[in-house]
């Protein structure tokens, strides 16, 4: 379950410092969440700053190394298959992201996808 | 059935009075009769699901009102698409959604790592969302994602059934980046639901729900070539590691995924070309579309005449092609004990002319106008496979699916008007 921890410091009115702690398993959408510090006389709420979004490209070399290590002893064992399956999953996801980024690279296209009726986005077909 | 619900709902609210007034009938909640875009209206209609007869008979006039139910909403049509990862499923999806119109995009405002794609008419659900074990769970249990033990088929069946009946569901999300199962997202029943993944036809109950199913069967050599293209750019990957990855997954793949071929209505096989002797580049492909006979609402594509065997080389006097040219084959066959028709294309398209020439000689392609296939192929000329049989057959499959969908819909409409006429 996603849970944001918010520290409750002692009564005092100092500026809160950011606490970078987001438990594993949170929505990655949390990565974008930043709450402004609220200064209240007695109690203070603290800004929660999430850790940066994990980059899948960095995971791939680690996963490959791990798979190769697991398969050293027995290439036909189940853990070996699972390790390579992981690698496959990560590389597939990286490939999909690349495609998606390529597709979204033109800002005009992304704007027109949402607003086809605007003047910039009018198309004419003979 | 949503179609019946529509009829009964119609009988409660909208009525066409015959010859003058119908005394005020207590009109219940207003229900939208028009079609279900993502089931927002269907969801409401389904609440009215009990079929009540003639509530509409007005108190005084003694005349029955005629109800015309548009029944544009019907049961959702469910399509299954099976393939190993990295085998062109996402390209297929893009071609398919493009045939139906509109671009498919992830649901707005939801989890950015959602695997679902939604367009005006279609919703594509990735079956990875029904993993019962996340990446860490699978590591502990030592099962790959290909293994049925890592998937929750009960949930898959329940939710696909619910969507088919017109109810919204809360579908879990499998986050491919973190490897964890995220909080569920709401999916509304669309006109066409596509479930794509490793096991759409594995579970028998889910198989029963599918109106049409496709299996992408890529031969090992081609798979290897495609994976190299895809993965060599990644750091840490080498030829050996790609080979090892394919080899390690092969036993599970052969045991669990491959047998789904026999249940598919259409199998698209991608093999190395026979036109170039000793070709190992894997650029030119031989693609076979194996179509099952006797599938409701679906008639196989054919060349020249159904049931005959024909081998055709379009290049000659009318058309000049560059090396290695194009070769077609069509003929009946049996596949895992089923009667099938096979349409095969070997080679590559170089020019627009070739494409339109070939299109004009194919029959039963379910196009709405002459040149539709060519137009679709050109629209996505940057997609992989646009110059060979993979793109051609994926496009044809997309058009056939549209044909199946329209016939199922027409069938439902006929059934609905029949019911309302009887009532």
Automatic annotation (TrEMBL), chain A:
The keyword Protein transport does not apply. It comes from the Eukaryota. Disulfide bonds join 71-80, 112-121. GO terms for cellular component: chloroplast. Residues 56-126 form the CP12 domain. InterPro entries: CP12-like (IPR039314), CP12_dom (IPR003823). Residues 93-126 are annotated as: Disordered. Keywords: Disulfide bond. One of its GO terms (biological process) is negative regulation of reductive pentose-phosphate cycle. It holds the Pfam family CP12. This is CP12 domain-containing protein.
From TrEMBL, chain B:
One of its GO terms (molecular function) is protein homodimerization activity. GO terms for biological process: reductive pentose-phosphate cycle. Transmembrane segments: none annotated. Its EC number is 2.7.1.19. It is an enzyme of class 2 (transferase). GO terms for cellular component: chloroplast; cytoplasm. It catalyses: D-ribulose 5-phosphate + ATP = D-ribulose 1,5-bisphosphate + ADP + H(+). Its main location: plastid. InterPro entries: P-loop_NTPase (IPR027417), PRK (IPR006082), PRK/URK (IPR006083). Keywords: ATP-binding, Calvin cycle, Chloroplast, Disulfide bond, Kinase, Nucleotide-binding, Photosynthesis, Plastid, Transferase, Transit peptide. Pathway: Carbohydrate biosynthesis; Calvin cycle. It comes from the Eukaryota. It holds the Pfam family PRK. It is found in: Plastid, Chloroplast. Residues 78-276 form the Phosphoribulokinase/uridine kinase domain. Belongs to the phosphoribulokinase family. NCBIfam families: PRK07429.1. This is Phosphoribulokinase. It comes from Physcomitrium patens (Spreading-leaved earth moss).
């Amino acid at each position: 379950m996603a849970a944001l921890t918010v520290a409750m410091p002692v009564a005092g009115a100092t500026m809160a410092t950011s606490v970078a702690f987001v438990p594993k398993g949170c929505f990655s959408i949390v990565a974008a969440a930043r709450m402004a510090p609220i200064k209240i006389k007695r109690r203070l709420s603290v800004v929660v700053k999430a850790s940066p979004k994990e980059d899948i490209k960095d995971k791939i070399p680690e996963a490959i190394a791990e798979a190769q290590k697991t398969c050293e002893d027995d290439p036909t064992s189940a853990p070996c298959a699972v390790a390579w399956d992981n690698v496959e999953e990560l590389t597939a996801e990286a490939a999909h992201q690349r495609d998606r980024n390529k597709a979204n690279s033109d800002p005009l296209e992304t704007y027109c996808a949402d607003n086809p009726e605007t003047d910039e986005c009018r198309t004419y077909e003979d | 059935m949503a179609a019946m619900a529509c009829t009964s709902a119609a009988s409660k609210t909208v009525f066409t009075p015959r010859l003058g007034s119908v005394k005020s009938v207590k009109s219940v909640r207003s229900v939208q009769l028009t079609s279900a875009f993502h089931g927002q209206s269907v969801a409401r209609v389904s609440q009215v699901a009990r079929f009540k007869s003639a509530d509409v008979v007005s108190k005084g006039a003694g005349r029955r009102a005629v109800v015309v139910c548009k029944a544009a909403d019907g049961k959702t049509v469910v399509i299954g698409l099976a393939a190993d990862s990295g085998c062109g499923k996402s390209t297929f999806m893009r071609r398919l959604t493009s045939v139906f119109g509109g671009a498919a995009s992830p649901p707005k405002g939801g989890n950015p790592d959602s695997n679902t794609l939604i367009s005006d008419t279609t919703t594509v659900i990735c079956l990875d969302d029904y993993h019962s074990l996340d990446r860490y769970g699978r590591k502990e249990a030592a099962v790959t994602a290909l293994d049925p033990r890592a998937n929750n088929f009960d949930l898959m069946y329940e939710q696909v059934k619910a969507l088919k009946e017109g109810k919204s569901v809360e579908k879990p999300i499998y986050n491919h980046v973190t490897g964890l199962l995220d909080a569920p997202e709401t999916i509304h029943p669309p006109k066409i639901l596509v479930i794509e993944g490793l096991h759409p036809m594995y579970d028998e109950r889910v198989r029963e729900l599918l109106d049409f199913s496709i299996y992408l069967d890529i031969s090992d050599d081609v798979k290897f070539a495609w994976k190299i293209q895809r993965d060599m750019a990644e750091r840490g990957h080498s030829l050996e590691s790609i080979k090892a990855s394919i080899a390690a997954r092969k036993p599970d793949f052969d045991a669990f995924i491959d047998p789904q071929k026999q249940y598919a209505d259409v199998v698209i096989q991608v093999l190395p070309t026979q036109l170039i002797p000793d070709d190992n580049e894997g650029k030119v492909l031989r693609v076979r579309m194996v179509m099952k006979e006797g599938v409701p609402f679906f008639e196989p594509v054919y060349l020249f005449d159904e049931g005959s065997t024909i081998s055709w080389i379009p290049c000659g006097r009318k058309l000049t092609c560059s090396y290695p040219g194009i070769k077609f084959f069509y003929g009946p066959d049996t596949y895992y004990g089923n009667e099938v028709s096979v349409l095969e294309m070997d080679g590559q398209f170089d020019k627009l002319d070739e494409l339109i020439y070939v299109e004009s000689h194919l029959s039963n392609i379910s196009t709405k106008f002459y040149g539709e296939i060519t137009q679709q192929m050109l629209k996505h000329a940057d997609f992989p496979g646009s110059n060979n049989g993979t793109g051609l057959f994926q496009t044809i499959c997309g058009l056939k699916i549209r044909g199946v969908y329209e016939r199922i819909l027409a069938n439902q409409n006929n059934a609905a008007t029949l019911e309302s006429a009887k009532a």
